[in-house]
Design goal:
The protein is an alpha+beta fold. It folds into 4 domains: 2-91, Rossmann fold (3-Layer(aba) Sandwich), CATH 3.40.50.20; 119-186, Dna Ligase, domain 1, CATH 3.30.1490; 191-312, D-amino Acid Aminotransferase, Chain A, domain 1 (2-Layer Sandwich); 328-423, Glycinamide Ribonucleotide Synthetase, Chain A, domain 4 (Alpha-Beta Complex). The chain is 29% helix and 26% strand. It has helices spanning 10-22, 51-60, 71-75, 78-84, 98-101, 103-112, 126-136, 159-171, 239-259, 293-296, 304-312, 391-404, 418-423; strands spanning 2-6, 27-31, 42-44, 65-68, 89-90, 120-123, 140-144, 153-156, 182-186, 191-200, 204-206, 211-212, 215-217, 221-224, 229-232, 265-275, 278-285, 328-335, 360-364, 367-370, 373-376, 380-388. Strand 7 (140-144) and strand 8 (153-156) form a beta hairpin. The longest helix has 21 residues, at 239-259. It is globular.
Length: 433
């Protein structure tokens, strides 16, 4: 079997790692793979966003399945193009990918389907947006409607901060086309849960719930990033909460998309806020989240490939479930100095040879191989994932592993899963170095 992975970040490394376990005899290819992916697959020197080039290459090289990692090629219609050529591909159509590529579209869909979410308004005029902010007050959230690499949401604790965020997006166009239209919504109190659902357009299979850490600083402070770490499972995501997510969010969303002529076949990511009034949708993504994938997949005991093939080949997921291994997983992201702002690339990376084991995996994101060996090539460089019997053990191992990796300017959050840690009874789940 020949499998192509589109993308070259931490999420794609985790997908490659899992699919190789599911199909050890398969041939794997990836678009311009990072330094960790490169030894595990054959490189395809085509940009992940070059839809036409990838479609032609996949057809010529008789690829059996293409797995699309990032949102940009999905929003550009890569699935539509591959399917037009009769190629099996895992990922939603361009129309269905609007659930992520346009927050305005997603909010309208939620409203029409009566799916709970934050009260909001959509604006393309700066003066109108600023007037609504002043009317609503703070705290309030300002979001670029388009794709902004996970950095397009600004939580504003004051009206002045919100006005600045509006001006940055609609006035200064700091988010480019992604910020030409913005969504302003009420601030929701609660704790977020990331829910992955493998969907066939009608039925779906839920994977393990997880929690991401978007803010760059300890205790969830500072600006948003693409994600500084994650953990799974999440104790507040009880069976009752997951049933609510399935029946009140995932199922009606799939029905609404199908009713809109855009059945969703692929991975639907629901970012949910667990509020006193129940679950509310924060956002949707049309693909696996990063770095949540780096903790969800290592805890998956059954085959991800079988689920993907079922969807890509147009078969039904009715009655299918995913088996989860016991224990917990925590991943700590090592980032380049200056991230999420400007940062330097080309810093030499040292990873101890004895660091990785069955219980500890280093997923590469922004790395490449040069004449001087492994070097940094992005803001988020590595994700150190630990799997253990308890959350406390996994958190300690992930943090300790991250501390052993070296490159100039490296930093990481040492408090990934801090809310979960606070929920633990220290007598039954000691957190000792």
């Amino acid at each position: 079997m020949r499998i192509l992975i589109v993308g070259n970040g931490g999420r794609e490394h985790a997908l490659l790692w899992k699919l190789r376990r599911d199909a050890p005899d398969a041939e794997f290819f990836a678009t311009r793979p990072n330094g960790g992916m490169a030894p595990l697959c054959q490189s395809v020197d085509i940009a992940p966003t070059d839809v036409e080039g990838l479609a032609e290459w996949a057809a010529a090289n008789r690829v059996d399945l293409t797995v699309v990692g990032p949102e940009a090629p999905l929003a550009s219609g890569i699935t539509d193009r591959f399917e037009a050529l009769g190629l099996a591909v895992f990922g939603p159509s361009r129309a269905a990918a609007r659930i992520e590529s346009s927050k305005a579209y997603a909010k309208d869909l939620l409203r029409s389907a009566n799916i709970p979410t934050a009260e909001h308004r959509t604006f393309s005029n700066q003066a109108s947006a600023e007037a609504w902010v002043r009317e609503q007050g703070a705290p309030i959230v300002v979001k670029a409607s388009g794709l902004a690499a996970g950095k397009g949401a600004v939580v504003c604790m004051t009206v002045e901060d919100a006005i600045d965020a509006v001006a940055s997006m609609l006035g200064d166009m700091n988010f480019g086309e992604a910020g030409r239209e913005i969504v302003i919504e009420e601030f929701m109190d609660g704790e977020e849960i990331s829910v992955f659902a493998v969907c066939d357009g009608e039925d779906f299979v839920l994977l393990h719930p997880s929690q991401d850490h978007k803010r760059v600083g300890e205790g969830d402070t500072g600006p948003n990033t693409g994600g500084m770490g994650a953990y799974a499972p999440v104790s507040i995501a009880t069976p009752q909460v997951m049933e609510e997510a399935a029946s009140q969010v995932i199922a009606p969303t799939l029905a609404a998309l199908a009713g809109d002529g855009a059945p969703f076949r692929g991975l639907l990511y629901a970012g949910l806020m667990n509020t006193e009034a129940g679950l509310k949708v924060v956002e949707f993504n049309c693909r696996f989240g990063d770095p949540e994938t780096q903790v969800v997949l290592p805890l998956m005991a059954s085959s991800l490939l079988d689920l993907m093939l079922t969807v890509a080949e147009g078969r039904s997921l009715a009655g299918v479930t995913a088996e989860i291994r016991p224990g917990a997983a925590v991943t700590t992201v090592l980032a380049s100095g200056g991230y999420p702002g400007s940062y330097e690339k080309g810093k030499s990376i040292t990873i101890p040879e004895d660091l990785e084991s069955e219980g500890l995996i280093v997923f590469h994101a922004g790395t490449s191989v040069s004449g001087q060996g492994l070097v940094t090539s992005g803001g988020r460089v590595l994700a150190v994932t630990a799997i253990a019997e308890t959350f406390a053990s996994a958190a300690n191992a992930s943090r300790s592993g991250a501390a052993r990796v070296e490159f100039e300017g490296a930093f990481y959050r040492s408090d990934i899963g801090w809310r979960e840690r606070a929920r633990l009874d220290p007598r039954t789940a000691p957190d000792e170095e």
